[in-house]
Write a structure and sequence with these properties.
The chain is of the alpha+beta class. 62% of the residues lie in helices and 13% in strands.
């Protein structure tokens, strides 16, 4: 409410400035015209007097005629100057209004994202901590048999790993803003993806995965830690935003000196207007009060930054009949020819 009032007040001030400027512009035009007419009337009297006493063929008469022409020319120039300055002022004011409005909208959106992030991070931290606390209290208060201890321990380890991944994402996103150093080594993308899928199959038994790849799929020089984070985030998102029985299809292929990895799901999809914004830090589709999926809005930001660090790109495509395809492109020739040293640089924020 306070921001809305300040915005309304700023618009009132801007409207007053426009009206005041319009008034002063009209006044300036009027005063300039009145001054010109007064000078011209005085010039006409001098010309008439010269014609009456000496005739129209004198040198003074010709001089007065030239001065009158110069006076008209100066008046026209002044009119154009006033009009030009008025237009420049209006353009500058319109640009200023646009920049103020854009800055306001960005600030509102940033505040919304920060609010969503705080709500989501609070939930993401509170849930596993509460679960681990409950398990520990159960150990202290009850005598459990071996199978129960094993079951509770496995749940505690799962929640601990969830906490670890969350903290790891937070630290990684902070590094990406400052200086993330790529540690280049030879990476077997096919092996990496299949290993991650094996882990996710145990974690999500209802999800099914299908991997399609061309023969002799090449290795690349890349950052194993960063690429692991990329594919893990994308695969978990594909499961998260799918229905109960998620079906994920992964296609790996090489085309025109580029390596491609498509991760396709049959989930809810991403609206076209959101496809570019989802890579912004903390951005999540919808409101934290209404959405049902967990997350902090860091996953796709991390994915985008690490892919850019490898001089690649990521696109969001629509899957048919429904769902999303995350297409990763890595320039294979650059990775092979330039080697690891060329990529030990800072990641742009």
């Amino acid at each position: 409410m306070k921001n809305s009032r300040l915005r309304l007040l700023s618009y009132i001030v801007i409207a007053y400035m426009l009206l005041a400027f319009a008034w002063w512009s009209i006044l300036l035009f009027t005063k300039n015209k009145d001054a010109f007419q007064a000078k011209r009337e005085l010039m006409d009297l001098r010309i008439a007097s010269e014609i009456q006493f000496n005739g129209p063929n004198t040198a003074l008469y010709q001089l007065l005629i030239e001065e009158e022409r110069e006076l008209e020319s100066k008046y026209q120039v002044q009119e154009w100057m006033i009009l030009g300055e008025a237009l420049v002022f209006i353009v500058i004011l319109i640009v200023g209004i646009y920049l103020i409005d854009r800055g306001y909208r960005k600030e509102v959106e940033s505040a919304r994202q920060r609010r969503n992030f705080l709500l989501s991070i609070t939930h993401e931290l509170k849930s596993p901590i509460a679960s681990i606390q409950l398990i520990l209290e159960t150990f202290l208060k009850r005598d459990l048999n071996r199978s129960a201890v094993t079951k509770f321990s496995e749940n505690a380890l799962k929640e601990t790993k969830r906490l670890y991944n969350l903290v790891n994402n937070l630290l990684l996103s902070a590094k990406l803003e400052e200086a993330y150093q790529l540690n280049m080594e030879e990476v077997d993308i096919s092996l990496l993806v299949n290993d991650l899928i094996s882990e996710l199959e145990e974690k999500h038994p209802n999800a099914t995965f299908q991997v399609n790849e061309t023969a002799d799929f090449p290795n690349i020089d890349g950052d194993l830690y960063g690429l692991t984070s990329v594919f893990l985030n994308l695969l978990e998102n594909a499961i998260k935003y799918s229905k109960n029985d998620a079906h994920i299809e992964v296609n790996l292929f090489e085309q025109e000196e580029n390596l491609y990895v498509d991760i396709a799901d049959r989930g809810i999809g991403i609206p076209d207007k959101e496809k570019k914004m989802v890579f912004q830090k903390f951005y999540r589709v919808g409101s934290e009060d209404t959405r049902s999926t967990k997350g902090t809005g860091l996953g796709l930001y991390i994915v985008d930054q690490i892919i850019k660090a490898h001089r690649g790109s990521i696109k969001i495509l629509d899957n048919q009949p429904q769902g999303t395809i995350m297409r990763i492109q890595l320039p294979l020739s650059i990775l092979h020819h330039q080697g690891a040293a060329a990529f030990k640089r800072q990641v742009p924020a």
